[in-house]
C-alpha cells in the first residue's frame, strides 16, 4: 500500500472519529458518580460482590470491592442489586419506518434517514436493559445501505447515534421476487461492474492529470486505469459505488444474512473473492445452523436467529427432531450474539431470557453473558468501548433487582454514558401496564406531601421561599428517582436531561 | 480374456489402494457381492452373475465375478444373493433449480448451481434410483444461463459435481417475446424519469438465430470506447471464447434441425435436449452425430396432458422412440413437479421397441458422459464414484424396486425394513397334480398373502428369484417325531404339553429346518396310559409364540402288545373320566345358555345368596395382630415387589383376615387364617382360585419388633416369596364369611364354570372333535379293538393310527373309521412273500397317510424317507401330499400349514427340481416368511 493512500485512510478515519465523537449532543454527564454495594458482573472478569463502580464524565474509571469513593462523587447505594454492562441488540430494523427500500442494490442508503426516535421500540429497549442498538436494514435486499449504532435515548437520529457507517447490509438469501440464481447473479454483476466503474474513473483521473502535468506519458487505457487507481480520492466516487469500494478497502464490515444453510457457502465465497471476509458478520436464519461445517470453516462471528430452537418433522418418517442452535454454534467454537425475539409475547423478547435459555441448555454462563454484551460489541467493532464493566469503557450499566439470568429479576435502573436514562420507579407506562402498587402508593404519598407542603406554605407565608432550581445540583440523583409523580414519564426525564 | 481382465482388475485395485489414502479418504470401504451386477460399462460384461464390487473410500476399486476380485482382509462383504446392482441413474433434465426470474433474454450470467440446495432432502428422487441430476437455469430464455451437475446425497461440499457444466440455449416458442427491460437507478420521481423500456428479442423463429448470432458477435468483440458495460454480454463472451459445452433445448422438429445447423455452422460441440418431435428428423440427427437427451412426457395426472384439437400442438409420442435407434440417446423425463421417475420413463421407452441395452445406457452412462461426468458416475468401473443401486430384480422390469441407494459409498436411501417377501419360482406346488408354472408367492408379516402367476410386489419387499428350474413346495411335515426331547424317554403326564421345550431355534432344530422339514408333530417316546399330548411345532423361529402351532395337537395312546381284550378297558378309563368332565362342562354351558336366555327375557328369579356369618364384635383392647397391615412381597419368581394391605383379627390365638388392597385381591373370594404362637405366626390362605391348587398357599413369619412381621409365603415346595408386614392401624375389621368353599353360581345367579382339569382338557378336546386321537397300534386285532372303542363307543371322528403295520388285513374297518395312518419307518411289508409298499397300498384304498421320522433331529432325513418311498413304488405326488397337506389335515392343523394358500403361514421350501428327484437339493427354506440360515 502506498504511503499516500495510508495517509488518506488515516485522515478519513480520524475525520470519522471526530464526527462520531462530536455526535452525542446529550446532556453532560455528572462529574463523578459512584455506584456502591452491588454485585457486579463485569463480563470481562469474575463477578465481584459488594463492589463499587466509579464513573467519571460518562466513563468507567474504576471497578472493584476496594475502590474508594472520592469525596466529591455522588454516591448511589446499590446494595442488594446486581449491575451488569448494558445489553446490546446486535441487529434491529424496528427503529426504521420501513425495513427495506425497494431497490435491490442500494449501498448509498443510510439508516439514519429512516430512523424514527419516537418509536416505542426504543422505550421498550431501554426498559429491558438494552443500551446499545445496531440499527440495520432488513433481509429483503441484495445489498442494502449503511447501518448505525445508536442509544435508545435522544430526540433526533443524530443525537441517538453512537457510531456512523458501522456496517453494510447484504443478503445471500433471495429478496422478494428474486430467486437464488438472480440474487447471486446480481451480486456478481454488482462487484464486476464496480471494477469496471473504478477502471473508468481511474483512467479518466490519469488522463486529467496527464493534461495538467505535461511530463506524464500516454500509456493506453488499461495501463492508465491501473496507474489512475492509486490517485483516486473518495470524492471521485459516486454515491452508488463509494460504499462498496470502502467495504472492499476494509473501512467497515459487511453483515450478510444467510437465511438457509445453502446460502452460507456462496456468501463466504463472495466475501472471500471480494476480499472482505475478514470484515464479515453472518446473520443466521432458523435452519442455517445445518451448515455448521461451513460456518466453522469460515470462522466468522454469527448472530443467531430469534428462535433458538429449531424443530423439524421428517417428511418421510414423521419423526420430530429439535435442535438447540446455540449449542451447535458454541460447539463449533464460533463467537455468537443473541437477539431478542420481538415477535414473541413470551419471555423470548428479553435478551436476558435468551441468555438464560442458553445456560439452561448447557452453554457456560460466561459465554451466554458475553453473547448479549461483549460479543455484539466486538462484532460492531466497539469491543474497546462497550460490552463490559472495565475502566475506560463507556458507562452503560443496567442495575437489576437480582441475577439478570433469573427470570424473577427486573431492571431497576439503566445508565447510559453515565446518565441515569431509566428508572423503574419512574416509568408511567410500566406502572399503567403492571398497575404497580408501590408506584401508586408513592404517588398518593407524594400528593399528600404536596398538600401538606401547601398547607405548611400557607402557614408560613411570612417566610420567603428558598427553592433551588435549574442548578446542576438539581440533576436527579438515582436514589431520589422514586419521589417523582407518575405523570412525569421517562421521556420527560430524558428530555430534561437533554436540556442541560 | 477372462484371466487378462482379472489381472487388469487386480493391478488397478493395487494401484488404486496405493494411491487412494493420500488422495481421498472421504468415504467408506466395503464390498458388495450380488446375484447380478449390470455395470453398464463398455469394458465389462453386460451382466456379471454372482459379482463383487469393491468400494474403497467411497470409490469403486474393482468389479468382477466373485472369487476373481481380491478383497482386502479389513473390508467387510455384504452378500445380496437376490439383488441386482446397477449404477445410479443420471437425470439429464430436472427442474430442481427452477427457472431464474431474471428478465434478460441473453442471460448467461445466471448459474443454476446457485439455486441448488446442497442440504436438500432428495429422498423421494433417490427412492426412484436417481443419484445424479442436471440443473437447468430454465427453458424460458434464449440464453438461459449455465447449467450444473449435482448429486442428490452425501456431504454438502461433495454434492456439486460441476458448477458450470454447460451454456444452456433454448429454441422455440417458449423463448419468444421475452419481457422488455426497465432499468432505473433510483425510484422514479418527477426529476428522475423512467427511461423507455428496452425491447428484447427474439420475437420469432427466424429471429432467434439472428438474436443469438448478434449477441455472440457483440460479446466476443472488444468493447468500444464509450460503450456501456454489459455484464451478461461479458460473461457470454468469456463462455463462448472458452468453447464452453453447449446444451441446446428444443422440442420442435424445425428447432432441432436449426440447432444441429447452429452447432455445425459454429463448429461447436454440444447436445440437444427435448426432442418431442425428434423422430421426424431422426435421419438428420443420425447423420449429424449430435447426441440427444429425449425427454419423455410422463405428466400422468395433469390436465396439461390434454392437447385439444390444435393440429400444431406438440403431442409427445414415446412410441416413435424406436425411430431414434442409432442416435446417441439419453432418456429423461419432463420434470413435472420434481418427481423424475426414470424407471417409468425407461419402461415406456422399452415398450416403444428400444433395446434393453440402449434404454439402460440412456439413463446411466450416456447422460453421464453428455453432462461431462462420465468419469465419475453412470457406470460401475474402477475409479468411478460408488453411486450404486441395489434392486430387487432387473432394472427395467416394472415389478422391480429400488432397495438401497449408495451415493459416494454412503447409504443415501434404503427401504424401510418390513417383513415382506416375494418368492419367484419355476414351479409352485399348489396341491396334488396342481402345479403352477412360473409363479410367485407373496408373504407379509409371516403369512402368505397371495400366490399366483403375478402377485403384488410391495415397494419394500425382499424378492427372492429362485430361477426357472426351481420347485417351490410347502414346508414338509414330520407326522411323528421327538424333536427336542434329547433322549428323555419318560412318559409325559396327561396334563403336560411339550410346548415349553421350544423357544429360539437351537442347532439341532435348525438342521431339521434347513432340510426342508418345517413342522414336527412332537411326541414323547412313551405315552401315559391316560393319554399324552402331542405338540405341533415349527422347526425354527425366534420365540415360542412363533414356533408353536398347537400345544395340544392330538392325544396319544399306546395299545401295542396289549391283550386285545384289555384294550377296551385301558382306553375306556381315561375316556370315561374325560366324558364325565365333558358332561360337567356341557351342563355348565347349557345352564349358562338358559340363564342368559332367562336374563334376556327378564325372567331371572332372585337368587338365594350364600349364607353369611357375621363375626362377633371384636374386643376393644389392643393385641399384637389386630389391625391393618401393609404387606410387601418380593423375591421368588416375582420380577418386582408387590405391595398390598391386609386386615387381620386376632381371636384367642387364631388369626382371621382378608386382603383389602390391591383392589383385584378383594375381588377374589379368599380367607386368611393362622395361629399366633409366641412371636411366630403361621397359617394358610384359602382361595377360590380358578385352578385347583395342590394345597392352600401358606404364610408364616415372626414378629421381629412390635407391628413388624417378617417371613415367607407361597406354595409349599413350589413357590416361595419373602413377605414383610407393617401394621398401619389397630382397628379390627369385621369379615363376611361365606360358608360355601366353592360356589356354583355367581352373585347374580349366573352359573359358574366347573374347575379346569388340565389332565382331562385334552380328552375333552378329543371328544368334541377338536383334535384327533393318535393311537399306536400294529396288529389287525389291536386296530379293530381301538376303532371299536373310539368310533363306536365314543363317536370319535378323527383317528390317526401310528404304524398300523397290519392295516392291509383290516382295510375296510379303517376306511369305515375314517382313520389316517402315520406310516411306520420301514414302509415295506410283505404278504405271502410278495413285497408291497404300505403307503402305496393305503393310498390306493383312499386312506390318508403321513410319514414319520420317529426321531429328534433325525427328522432331517424325512426328504430321504420320501425318496425311498418313491423308489419302492409310491407316486411322488402321493409322497409330497402325505408330507404336506395330508399330514396337516390328519392333525387338523391345515388352517396354518401344509399348502401354499393365502392366509396360511409362510412356510416354504425351494427345491432345485422336483423334491424327490435324485439330483434335487433343498436350496432355501423359509419359515413364517423368514429364511432359515444354513
Quick synopsis:
The complex is a heterodimer of chains A (500) and B (934). Chain A has 500 residues and is α/β, with parallel strands linked by helices.
Detailed description of the structure:
The complex is a heterodimer of chains A (500) and B (934). Chain A is an alpha/beta fold. Chain A has a domain at 87-386: Alpha-Beta Barrel (TIM Barrel), CATH 3.20.20.140. In chain A, 34% of the residues lie in helices and 20% in strands. Chain A is built from 15 helices and 20 strands. By secondary structure, chain B is an alpha/beta fold. Chain B folds into 5 domains: 1-88 and 378-415, Roll (Urease, subunit C, domain 1); 91-302 and 312-377, TIM Barrel; 420-474 and 900-934, Roll (Urease, subunit C, domain 1); 476-576 and 761-897, Metal-dependent hydrolases (TIM Barrel); 612-738, Beta Barrel (Lipocalin). Chain B contains 19 helices and 43 strands. In chain B, α3 crosses α4 (231-241) and α12 runs parallel beside α15 (780-793). Chain B is elongated. Residues 14-25 and 611-618 of chain B have low confidence and may be disordered. Chains A and B meet through α4 of A and α4 of B.
Amino acid at each position: 500500500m502506498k504511503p499516500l493512500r495510508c495517509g488518506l485512510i488515516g485522515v478519513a478515519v480520524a475525520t470519522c472519529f471526530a464526527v462520531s465523537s462530536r455526535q452525542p449532543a446529550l446532556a453532560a454527564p455528572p462529574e463523578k458518580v459512584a455506584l456502591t454495594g452491588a454485585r457486579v458482573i463485569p463480563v470481562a472478569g469474575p463477578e465481584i460482590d459488594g463492589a463499587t463502580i466509579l464513573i467519571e464524565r460518562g466513563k468507567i474509571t474504576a471497578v472493584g470491592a476496594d475502590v474508594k469513593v472520592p469525596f466529591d462523587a455522588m454516591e448511589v447505594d446499590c446494595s442488594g442489586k446486581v449491575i451488569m454492562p448494558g445489553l446490546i441488540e446486535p441487529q434491529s430494523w424496528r427503529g426504521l419506518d420501513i425495513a427495506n427500500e425497494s431497490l435491490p442494490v442500494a449501498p448509498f442508503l443510510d439508516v439514519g434517514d429512516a430512523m424514527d426516535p419516537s418509536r416505542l421500540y426504543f422505550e421498550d429497549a431501554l426498559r429491558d436493559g438494552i443500551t446499545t442498538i445496531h440499527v440495520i436494514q432488513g433481509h429483503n435486499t441484495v445489498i442494502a445501505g449503511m447501518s448505525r449504532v445508536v442509544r435508545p435515548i435522544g430526540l433526533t437520529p443524530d443525537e441517538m447515534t453512537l457510531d456512523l457507517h458501522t456496517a453494510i447490509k447484504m443478503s445471500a438469501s433471495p429478496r422478494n421476487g428474486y430467486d437464488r440464481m438472480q440474487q447471486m447473479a446480481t451480486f456478481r454483476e454488482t462487484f464486476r461492474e464496480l471494477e469496471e466503474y473504478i477502471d473508468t474513473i481511474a483512467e479518466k483521473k490519469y488522463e486529467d492529470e496527464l493534461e495538467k502535468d505535461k511530463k506524464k506519458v500516454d500509456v493506453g487505457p488499461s495501463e492508465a486505469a491501473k496507474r489512475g487507481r492509486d490517485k483516486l480520492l473518495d470524492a471521485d466516487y459516486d454515491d452508488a459505488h463509494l460504499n462498496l469500494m470502502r467495504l472492499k478497502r476494509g473501512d467497515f464490515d459487511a453483515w450478510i444474512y444467510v437465511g438457509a444453510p445453502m446460502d452460507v457457502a456462496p456468501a463466504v465465497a463472495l466475501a472471500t473473492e471480494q476480499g472482505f471476509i475478514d470484515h464479515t458478520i453472518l446473520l443466521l436464519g432458523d435452519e442455517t445452523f445445518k451448515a455448521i461445517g461451513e460456518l466453522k470453516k469460515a470462522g466468522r462471528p454469527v448472530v443467531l436467529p430469534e428462535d433458538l430452537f429449531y424443530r423439524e418433522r421428517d417428511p418421510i418418517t414423521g419423526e420430530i427432531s429439535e435442535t438447540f442452535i446455540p449449542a451447535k454454534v458454541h460447539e463449533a467454537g464460533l463467537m455468537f450474539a443473541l437477539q431478542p425475539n420481538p415477535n414473541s409475547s413470551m419471555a423470548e423478547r428479553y435478551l436476558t431470557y435468551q441468555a438464560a435459555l442458553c445456560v439452561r441448555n448447557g452453554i457456560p454462563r460466561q459465554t451466554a453473558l458475553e453473547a448479549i454484551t461483549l460479543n455484539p460489541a466486538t462484532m460492531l467493532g466497539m469491543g474497546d468501548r462497550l460490552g463490559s464493566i472495565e475502566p475506560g469503557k463507556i458507562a452503560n450499566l443496567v442495575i437489576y433487582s437480582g441475577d439478570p439470568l433469573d427470570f424473577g429479576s427486573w431492571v431497576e435502573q439503566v445508565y447510559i454514558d453515565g446518565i441515569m436514562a431509566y428508572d423503574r420507579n419512574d416509568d408511567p407506562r410500566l406502572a399503567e401496564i403492571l398497575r404497580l402498587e408501590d408506584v401508586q402508593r408513592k404517588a398518593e404519598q407524594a400528593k399528600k406531601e404536596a398538600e401538606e407542603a401547601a398547607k405548611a406554605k400557607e402557614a408560613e407565608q411570612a417566610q420567603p421561599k428558598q427553592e433551588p432550581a435549574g442548578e446542576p445540583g438539581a440533576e436527579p440523583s438515582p436514589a431520589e428517582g422514586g419521589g417523582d409523580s407518575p405523570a412525569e414519564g421517562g421521556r420527560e426525564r430524558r428530555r430534561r436531561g437533554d436540556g442541560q | 480374456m477372462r484371466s487378462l481382465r482379472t489381472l487388469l482388475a487386480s493391478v488397478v485395485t493395487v494401484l488404486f489402494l496405493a494411491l487412494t489414502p493420500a488422495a481421498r479418504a472421504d468415504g467408506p470401504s466395503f464390498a458388495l457381492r450380488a446375484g447380478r451386477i449390470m455395470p453398464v460399462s463398455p469394458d465389462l460384461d453386460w451382466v456379471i452373475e454372482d459379482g463383487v464390487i469393491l468400494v474403497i473410500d467411497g470409490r469403486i476399486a474393482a468389479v468382477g465375478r466373485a472369487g476373481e476380485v481380491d478383497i482386502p482382509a479389513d473390508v467387510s462383504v455384504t452378500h445380496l444373493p437376490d439383488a441386482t446392482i446397477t449404477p445410479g441413474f443420471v437425470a439429464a433434465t430436472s427442474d430442481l433449480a427452477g427457472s431464474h426470474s431474471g428478465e434478460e433474454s441473453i442471460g448467461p450470467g445466471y448459474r443454476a448451481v446457485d439455486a441448488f440446495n446442497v442440504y436438500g432432502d432428495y429422498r423421494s428422487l433417490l427412492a426412484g434410483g436417481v443419484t445424479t441430476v442436471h440443473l437447468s437455469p430454465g427453458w424460458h430464455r434464449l440464453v438461459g444461463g449455465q447449467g450444473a451437475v449435482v448429486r442428490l446425497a452425501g456431504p454438502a461440499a461433495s454434492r456439486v459435481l460441476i458448477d458450470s457444466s454447460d451454456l444452456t440455449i433454448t429454441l422455440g416458442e417458449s423463448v419468444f417475446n421475452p419481457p422488455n427491460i426497465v432499468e432505473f437507478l433510483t425510484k422514479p420521481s418527477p426529476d428522475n424519469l423512467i427511461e423507455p423500456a428496452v425491447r428484447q428479442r427474439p420475437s420469432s423463429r427466424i429471429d432467434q438465430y439472428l438474436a443469438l448470432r448478434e449477441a455472440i458477435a457483440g460479446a466476443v468483440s472488444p468493447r468500444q470506447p464509450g460503450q456501456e458495460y454489459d455484464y451478461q454480454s461479458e460473461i457470454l463472451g468469456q463462455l463462448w471464447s472458452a468453447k464452453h459445452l453447449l446444451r441446446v433445448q428444443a422440442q420442435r422438429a424445425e428447432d432441432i434441425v436449426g440447432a444441429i445447423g447452429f452447432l455445425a455452422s459454429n463448429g461447436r460441440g454440444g447436445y440437444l435436449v427435448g426432442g418431442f418431435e425428434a423422430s421426424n428428423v431422426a435421419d438428420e440427427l443420425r447423420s449429424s452425430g449430435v447426441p440427444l437427451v429425449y425427454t419423455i412426457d410422463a405428466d400422468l395426472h395433469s390436465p396439461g396432458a390434454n392437447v385439444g384439437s390444435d393440429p400444431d400442438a406438440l403431442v409427445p409420442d414415446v412410441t416413435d422412440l424406436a425411430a431414434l435407434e442409432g442416435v446417441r440417446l439419453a432418456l429423461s423425463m419432463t420434470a413435472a413437479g420434481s418427481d423424475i421417475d426414470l424407471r417409468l420413463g425407461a419402461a415406456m421407452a422399452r415398450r416403444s421397441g428400444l433395446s434393453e441395452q440402449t434404454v439402460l445406457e440412456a439413463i446411466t452412462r450416456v447422460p453421464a458422459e453428455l453432462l461431462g461426468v462420465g468419469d465419475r458416475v453412470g457406470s460401475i468401473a474402477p475409479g468411478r464414484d460408488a453411486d450404486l443401486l441395489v434392486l430387487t430384480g432387473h432394472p427395467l422390469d416394472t415389478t422391480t424396486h429400488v432397495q438401497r441407494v449408495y451415493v459416494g459409498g454412503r447409504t443415501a436411501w434404503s427401504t424401510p425394513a418390513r417383513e415382506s417377501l416375494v418368492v419367484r419360482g419355476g414351479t409352485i406346488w399348489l396341491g396334488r397334480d396342481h402345479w403352477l408354472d412360473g409363479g410367485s408367492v407373496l408373504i407379509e408379516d409371516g403369512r402368505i398373502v397371495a400366490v399366483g402367476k403375478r402377485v403384488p410386489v410391495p415397494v419394500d419387499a425382499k424378492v427372492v428369484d429362485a430361477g426357472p428350474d426351481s420347485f417351490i413346495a410347502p414346508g414338509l411335515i414330520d407326522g411323528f417325531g421327538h424333536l427336542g426331547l434329547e433322549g428323555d424317554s419318560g412318559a409325559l403326564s396327561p396334563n403336560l404339553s411339550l410346548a415349553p421345550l421350544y423357544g429360539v431355534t437351537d442347532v439341532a432344530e435348525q438342521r431339521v429346518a434347513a432340510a426342508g422339514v418345517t413342522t414336527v408333530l412332537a411326541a414323547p417316546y412313551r405315552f401315559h396310559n391316560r393319554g399324552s399330548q402331542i405338540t405341533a411345532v415349527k422347526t425354527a423361529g425366534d420365540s415360542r409364540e412363533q414356533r408353536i402351532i398347537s400345544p395340544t395337537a392330538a392325544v396319544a395312546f399306546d395299545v401295542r402288545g396289549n391283550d386285545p381284550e384289555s384294550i377296551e378297558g385301558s382306553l375306556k378309563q381315561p375316556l370315561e373320566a374325560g366324558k364325565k368332565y365333558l358332561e360337567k362342562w356341557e351342563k355348565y354351558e347349557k345352564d349358562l345358555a338358559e340363564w342368559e336366555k332367562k336374563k334376556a327375557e327378564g325372567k331371572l328369579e332372585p337368587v338365594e345368596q350364600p349364607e353369611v356369618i357375621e363375626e362377633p364384635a371384636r374386643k376393644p383392647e389392643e393385641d399384637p395382630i389386630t389391625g391393618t397391615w401393609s404387606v410387601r412381597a418380593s423375591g421368588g419368581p416375582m420380577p418386582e415387589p408387590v405391595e398390598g394391605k391386609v386386615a387381620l383379627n386376632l381371636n384367642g390365638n387364631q388369626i382371621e383376615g382378608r386382603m383389602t388392597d390391591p383392589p383385584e385381591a378383594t375381588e377374589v373370594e379368599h380367607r386368611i387364617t393362622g395361629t399366633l404362637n409366641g412371636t411366630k405366626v403361621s397359617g394358610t390362605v384359602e382361595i377360590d382360585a380358578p385352578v385347583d391348587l395342590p394345597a392352600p398357599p401358606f404364610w408364616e413369619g415372626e414378629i421381629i419388633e412390635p407391628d413388624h412381621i417378617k417371613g415367607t409365603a407361597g406354595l409349599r415346595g413350589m413357590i416361595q416369596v419373602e413377605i414383610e408386614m407393617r401394621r398401619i392401624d389397630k382397628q379390627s375389621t369385621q369379615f363376611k364369611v361365606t360358608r360355601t368353599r366353592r360356589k356354583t353360581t355367581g352373585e347374580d345367579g349366573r352359573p359358574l364354570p366347573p374347575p379346569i382339569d388340565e389332565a382331562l382338557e385334552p380328552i375333552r378336546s378329543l371328544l368334541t372333535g377338536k383334535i384327533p386321537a393318535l393311537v399306536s397300534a400294529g396288529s389287525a386285532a389291536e386296530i379293530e379293538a381301538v376303532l371299536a372303542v373310539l368310533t363306536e363307543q365314543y363317536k370319535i371322528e378323527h383317528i390317526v393310527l401310528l404304524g398300523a403295520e397290519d392295516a392291509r388285513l383290516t382295510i375296510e374297518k379303517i376306511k369305515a373309521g375314517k382313520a389316517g395312518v402315520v406310516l411306520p419307518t420301514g414302509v415295506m411289508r410283505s404278504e405271502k412273500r410278495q413285497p408291497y409298499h404300505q403307503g402305496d397300498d393305503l393310498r390306493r384304498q383312499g386312506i390318508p397317510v403321513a410319514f414319520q421320522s420317529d426321531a429328534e433331529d433325525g427328522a432331517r432325513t424325512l426328504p430321504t424317507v420320501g425318496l425311498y418311498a418313491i423308489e419302492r413304488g409310491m407316486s411322488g405326488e402321493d409322497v409330497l401330499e402325505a408330507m404336506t397337506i395330508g399330514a396337516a389335515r390328519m392333525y387338523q392343523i391345515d388352517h396354518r400349514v401344509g399348502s401354499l394358500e393365502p392366509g396360511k403361514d409362510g412356510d416354504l421350501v425351494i427345491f432345485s427340481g422336483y423334491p424327490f428327484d435324485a439330483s434335487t437339493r433343498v436350496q432355501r427354506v423359509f419359515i413364517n416368511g423368514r429364511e432359515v440360515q444354513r
